[in-house]
Amino acid sequence: AIARREMIIKDYSQINDNGNPVLTSDISFSSPSTAAGICGGCSSNGWVEWKNDKGQTLDEVYRNK
Question: pTM, whole model, 2 decimals?
Answer without folding.
Answer: 0.76
